[in-house]
């Protein structure tokens, strides 16, 4: 029998509504953008809560708060929650305050805090696991409503019930909580260690593939992509997501190049009408379709070789490259650091980063024989297939480890051996 089993023998648990055992408070009020420049006080950000089951003391940010302001302070033992999200499943994410701070700490305005009444003895280290458990998360999700953004209803939130072991014996209750925390801390540490090892393996395999790819594209017989003898860039047309239809002519919107396609594609996931397709610019089999805008430099020029046997419509903020190279060869080349270095010289813009077709035409590419291009593609296809298989295995293993962790966490926090009152 484990220590926890011994502690739980003959012990009652009482499920109490949050409104009966705690108080809810809001975040900073009356603040504008300038208050978050050269601040004099610390505050917990939305991101800090969302990313951590316990508030990261090192990730606090600064805000201006005068001594006469009536603002709620974050205290040890509080549990902080994100107030809203773009989807209900991520609303009301929690983070426990497990530290004492000599300086005042406040809460951002897009969140709210929960503070247990003095007679309720719940360890913040216990809270950090409890409010992230599936059973409690399911109840929190039910309190969120909205259309484009989901907000937690405080009226429904305070009705959520949480388990308190041995409520009439605080010393015993804290002992039980401490043991649960000890087991979960050990399990969390082990899971994180295993996950880190798997992520390291994933990154090592990725670097190995990238190194191998770079070696194949030797900088010999260089030629400009826009040289008349090898290819030309053609801008896409005004295709928008609203133009998608259930059937018709295949199309690719520039945003899909980041989310739906890898290095090459044989079929599209979306279509436009025959009427729209007549006036659209269309890529043919073998053309390279390139997204020319992104929010960050690395993603600019995400490219996919179209290998389907029909022409497809291409959106604006994208272009396609019609060329005499092996299609996969040029697609793989756009992934190399050799290409990326040249591309960065031509990127413009502030919030939206972009490169135009005229500048892409100036970029140099190794121009070996078609036979050599085919050899390079064959090697990269084989290596990519191996890399993808390993990637899938690592992803599967990480998922299994996470599921295993969540299973044992739920078992520990469900108090199966306790009687509810």
Task: Give the strand line-up of the largest sheet.
Answer: 14-23-19-21-16
Structural class: alpha+beta
The CATH superfamily of the largest domain bears the name DNA methylase specificity domains
The appropriate CATH architecture of the largest domain is: Alpha-Beta Complex
Number of strands: 26
Overall geometry: elongated
Tell me, what is the CATH class of the largest domain? Alpha Beta
Query: What is the total domain count?
Result: 2
Fraction of residues in helix: 25-40%
Strand portion: 15-25%
Q: Give average pLDDT, whole number.
A: 92
Instruction: Indicate the low-confidence ranges by residue numbers.
Output: 416-421
Query: The CATH topology of the largest domain is what?
Result: Adenine-n6-DNA-methyltransferase TaqI, Chain A, domain 2
What is the gyration radius calculated from CA atoms?
28 Å
Q: Specify the number of helices.
A: 13
The largest sheet, given as strand count, sense and whether it forms a barrel, is: 5 strands, mixed
Task: State the separation between the terminal residues, measured CA to CA.
Answer: 25 Å
Entry keywords:
five-stranded mixed sheet, disordered C terminus, 2 domains, elongated, Adenine-n6-DNA-methyltransferase TaqI, Chain A, domain 2, 26 strands, alpha+beta, four-stranded antiparallel sheet, 421 residues
What does this structure look like?
Helix content is 37%, strand content 22%. It contains 13 helices and 26 strands. The chain starts with a helix and ends with a strand.
């Amino acid at each position: 029998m484990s220590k926890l089993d011994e502690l739980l023998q003959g012990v009652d648990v009482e499920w109490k509504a949050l409104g009966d055992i705690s108080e809810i408070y809001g975040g900073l009020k009356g603040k504008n953008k300038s208050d978050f420049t050269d601040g004099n006080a610390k505050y917990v950000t939305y991101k800090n809560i969302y990313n951590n089951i316990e508030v990261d003391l090192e990730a606090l940010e600064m805000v201006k708060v005068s001594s006469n302001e009536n603002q709620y302070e974050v205290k040890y033992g509080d549990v902080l929650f994100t107030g809203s999200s773009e989807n209900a499943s991520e609303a009301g994410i929690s983070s426990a305050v497990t530290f004492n701070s000599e300086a005042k700490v406040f809460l951002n305005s897009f969140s709210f805090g929960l503070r247990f009444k003095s007679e309720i003895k719940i360890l913040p280290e216990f809270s950090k696991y409890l409010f992230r458990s599936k059973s409690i998360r399911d109840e929190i999700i039910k309190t969120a409503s909205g259309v484009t953004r989901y907000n937690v209803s405080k009226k429904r939130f305070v009705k959520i019930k949480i388990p308190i072991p041995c409520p009439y014996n605080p010393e015993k209750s804290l002992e039980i909580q401490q043991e649960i925390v000890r087991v979960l801390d050990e399990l969390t540490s082990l899971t994180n260690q295993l996950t880190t090892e798997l992520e390291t393996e994933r990154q090592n395999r990725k670097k190995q593939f990238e190194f191998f790819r770079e070696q194949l594209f030797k900088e010999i017989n260089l030629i400009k992509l826009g040289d008349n003898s090898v290819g030309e860039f053609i801008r896409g047309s005004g295709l928008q997501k609203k133009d998608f239809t259930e059937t018709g002519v295949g199309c690719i919107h520039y945003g899909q190049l980041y989310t739906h396609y890898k290095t090459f594609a044989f079929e599209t996931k979306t279509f436009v009408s025959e009427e729209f397709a007549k006036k659209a610019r269309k890529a043919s089999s073998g053309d390279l379709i390139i997204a020319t805008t992104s929010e960050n430099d690395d993603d600019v020029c995400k490219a996919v070789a179209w290998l389907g046997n029909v022409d497809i419509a291409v959106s604006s903020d994208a272009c396609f490259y019609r060329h005499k190279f092996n299609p996969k060869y040029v697609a793989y080349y756009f992934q190399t650091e050799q290409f990326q270095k040249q591309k960065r010289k031509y990127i413009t813009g502030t919030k939206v980063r972009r490169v135009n077709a005229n500048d892409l035409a100036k970029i140099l590419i190794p121009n070996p024989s078609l036979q050599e291009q085919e050899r390079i593609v064959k090697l990269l296809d084989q290596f990519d297939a191996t890399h993808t298989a390993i990637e899938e295995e690592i992803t599967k293993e990480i998922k299994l480890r996470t599921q295993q962790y969540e299973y044992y966490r739920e078992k520990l926090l469900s108090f199966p051996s306790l009687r509810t009152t």
